[in-house]
Structure formats: C-alpha cells, structure tokens
Amino acid sequence: xxxxxxCLVQSIGLLSYSIPxxxxxxxxxxxxxxxxxxxxxxxxxxxxxxxxxxSEKDGIDLTNSSSAFKxxxxxxxxxxxxxxxxxxxxxxxKLDILTDFIIEKGVHGLMPLGTSSEFALLTPSERKVFxxxxxxxxxxxxxxxxxxxxxxxxxxxxxxxxxxxxxxDAVICxxxxxxxxxxxxxxSHFQTLIDAISIPIxxxxxxxxxxxxxxxxxxxxLAETNPGRVAGVKFTTNDLTMFLExxxxxxxxxxxxxxxxxxxxxxxxxxxxxxxxGSANVLPEETSSIFNLFLKGDILRAKSIQREIExxxxxxxxxTFPAAVKEAMRLxxxxxxxxxxxxxxxxxxxKKMVRASLSFKLHG
Length: 364
Description:
By secondary structure, the protein is of the alpha/beta class. The chain has helices at 92-104, 124-138, 153-166, 183-196, 207-210, 216-225, 240-250, 264-270, 284-296, 299-315, 323-331, 348-357, 359-362, and strands at residues 4-7, 24-28, 33-37, 40-44, 73-75, 82-83, 89-90, 145-147, 170-174, 201-205, 230-235, 255-258, 274-276. The chain has one domain (4-362): TIM Barrel (Alpha-Beta Barrel). The chain is globular and about 50 Å long.
C-alpha cells in the first residue's frame, strides 16, 4: 500500500485574524494511519487490529484507549428514549436500538447524558442506568463519554465514579449551574473531579444553558496542572470569536469540539477536532460523512452535506429543546417517545417544519 499524505489546511477568505489555523495531516503506511492535528498525533490502526473499529469506506479508523483518550470526529449526545404516562419511564429496549443505529451509521463515539439527553430531568438512578446500558450495548465498538454534570460537586463525583466503574472512556462536565461560582470555584470543581477518578475528563462549555462562559484560562490552567487528564472541551456556542480563542490557546494541546450543529463544517475549517452534535442522533451517517470527507480533503462534498442538513440544524431549535429532535427521530422510524415535562411537545405547525427540514432524508 503506497504512502499518502495530504494537508487540509484551509485558506478561509472571510478570516483576517492573525490566528493560526491548525494543520490536519494524514500519513499512511501499510500498517497504520497517523493523524496529525497541530502538534498532536493520533495513531490510527486499520480495521481488525484493536477495539473502536470503523470501516475504511466510511472514513478513518480512529483507535483510542482510555489512557490516551482523545475525542475526535462526530459524537452524538444521545437522546433519552421515554415511555409511559408523562414519559415517566426509560425505554431501555429502544435505547439499545438507538445505540446500535448510531454506531452502525458510522459515528466516532457516544455521549450519554448530554443536553440532548434531557439529563437534568432524569433521576440519579436513571442516569446511572442509562450510562451502564449504553456501555453494555456498545460493547467497546466506539468510545463513550458519560455526562456527569450537576450543580453540586459531590453529585458530580458520585456520577463520575459510577461511570468509571461501568467502563466509560471519559466523563464530561459543565460548570456548576443554578448556583453561579467564580473562577476559583470552577477550578476547584473540576480539579476535585480530576482527583476523584483515573479516566480523562472533558469540560463542557455551554453558556446559553449554564448562564456563563467558562474562561479559556481556567481550562488552560487545569490542563497545565494535570497533564494528560483534560482530554478536551465541548464548546456549544455561536460565538466564533470565543471559539477561536479556545483554539488559539489550547488547540494544539487538547481536542476542541464544537457543539453547534450549524457551525460544524466551519469549525472544522478553523481547526476543531470534531463535533458533539445533537443532529447526529437523527443524521449519524450524514454528520459523520462531513467529518470523514473533510479529513480526506474532499472539502466540496463535505460542505455540500453540511448545506443539505442545515435546515434541520435550524429546525432543532423549534419548541422546547430537544422536542424537535425527538419528533425527527419519530419521522425517520425510530420513535423514542416525547420530551419529559416540564418540556412540551411541538405544535402541529412546528412538526410540519421539522418534516420539511428533513425532506432530503424522508423523500430522497
């Protein structure tokens, strides 16, 4: 097999900032791929060698181990299937089907208990059952990053220790919400989490839900104090200026993942390591293809798919999130129930808008 190398550094006309765009470079030999993101190199082993295998026809096989876990590619924050009156029960059988569906469609990891999961509406026992079930069903086919967010540090530790015991590859955590803390409190919160477990953590920055932005300096200090323990950041934002600041400060030392579905392709051009995308529950094949094609250097096809899914990425915001994602799952034939109160179902008009946004999928 011949050696191949390609550079996916993009010249982006609308950027005039003096901020370095990270280099993506693939070198290929008969035994492996090496994926270089900035100064970070990930060894990529062909299908059949180790766990976390991905078909070469769908992209690059991104092998990970917990000791050197680096999130990359497309990772869905999994929706939570409910059943019963007022969505009072977890539908574990449907969760198994969902897990298989998104893995088989080519995603690069799973994130149970993200924002799309309605995690804050689950009981503590439901949260633990959810993570354990996903780990068992995934059977090490892809890495798993468990959400452990909570307003209180004590509860975060409880969720994280159980998730580690259940076999996840990493945990991800927002800053404390409802009670707002300062930078000292944030450092203490995340440092206590790092000290309590042996697997890596990711930091989840989602200002619109938590109520504040986690300053990049806080993340940088945690990473410098704890080498190898902070695997990356999920930043859900439409503020590309702040996203670029994260990339400038830490893009060469950790994985910066975008959480905004509408900005996925643009974030890849800027140097993001991938996306943790709610739309990947509904469109796992399409979102994964954007990343895989971008990685191969087929920029035009990647951009074309991003444009194709764009109407749905906007429709996801209809109603009370993630009601539109749940409706979309029903439309593609994988009904995972409705949202749990106090969230409410979409109106008939909103349902029609979701259907229209998926016309390429439903009628293609």
